[in-house]
Amino acid sequence: MGKGKHVPIRTCIFCGRKMAKYELLRLVLDDEKRPIWDRKKCLPGRGAYVCPRDECLRKLETQKGRRRLAKAFRGRLARENPELFKVLIEAAGGQDKYDQNQDL
Hints:
This is Putative nucleic-acid-binding protein implicated in transcription termination. It comes from Thermosulfurimonas dismutans. By secondary structure, the protein is of the alpha+beta class. It has one domain: Hypothetical Cytosolic Protein, Chain: A (2-Layer Sandwich), CATH 3.30.1230. Helix content is 26%, strand content 16%. It has four helices and five strands, in the order βββββαααα. The strands form two sheets. A three-stranded antiparallel β-sheet has the order 4-3-5, covered by helices on one side. A hairpin with a 5-residue loop joins strand 3 and strand 4. The longest helix has 10 residues. The radius of gyration is 14 Å and the shape is globular. It starts with 8 loop residues before the first strand and ends with a helix. The C terminus is likely disordered.
């Protein structure tokens, strides 16, 4: 009568989809308050989660997306990271992984 292992659920800051933590890309702020990708999901500090779908990743480049990211970090976002979008696209494999039900 054992229960299954608990899987943490997180929400994408752009589309609002709830997914398992391991399916999302976690962002944290570095020492210069720039968002960076937390590959291993273990860096300290508040995290913001983005699903690997192209439409959500592309929102990082928009003004509205930057405001949403700043809100997720409770206004602590001081600088932008222009390389972040490219890194996350590579991490997601440049395709819509959510719809294909694949893990990162």
